[in-house]
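Narrative of activities, Objective 1.

The group set out to show that a structural description can be obtained from nothing but a protein's sequence at a throughput compatible with the screening campaign. Below is one input-output pair from the validation batch, recorded exactly as produced.
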Amino acid sequence: MNIVKRINNKIFREFTNIAGPKRFCNICGTSFRGKFNPIHQYYTDQIKRTGYPYNFKDAETLNYNEYTCPHCESLDRDRLIALYLEKYLNNKSVYRLLDIAPALRLRDYLKSISSIVYRSADLSMKDVDDNVDLMDMNIYPDCSFDIFICSHVLEHVLDDNLAMRELHRILSIKGFGIVLVPIISQLKDIDEDVTITDPDERWKRFGQDDHVRLYSQEGFIERLAGAGFKVSMITINDFSLKEFTLLGLSPKSVLYILNK
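Output recorded for this entry:
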């Protein structure tokens, strides 16, 4: 259900009156005066120290000024995913969902949805249902899941083409995937090098010490299409500025929805 419709109109007006900015976290259900917390200073310091050539405003889906919820610590991208699910899930249906490298707060939110049969997977995390390599998910038969969520995972994977083909294989015919990766607006091509292992060099090149690539939007879409996906870009035009502001989302945020 659309979050603006879900909130009583009177309350919504109260959240956005001239007394000051108000926010709502759809992950923990908390409303509050003020704004979400900015991204941690650690990331700013690392980017400056290592000479990373981009800054936070260059990222496609990142509100560095309102990054985490002060109550549950959900990330802005978690709130974007929840917003999409609230609007597009049919509560009369049952969805088999695979959450890959689950974010803690988003996981709790997903497990609270009665129409979702939840399963989690990661190569090394201990508190998941399955320890599985994204490049070889042979424990899952073809078309095993109606939904998968793969948020900020593919930039860590040595062969993301192989991982994308596996995601395509396990998705049901009428299902959909939700995918997010770090995307820099100025990039025309994907910048990657899996042979780089020095943490500082990875920070300088890819913006984090456990990443092996940095995506361009065009390159990301091309790879997803090459794996067989039909790619839809969900933006603020599919919601509203009020919803994005209320949830602390950047107007530049894009959610990639994948279908067979």
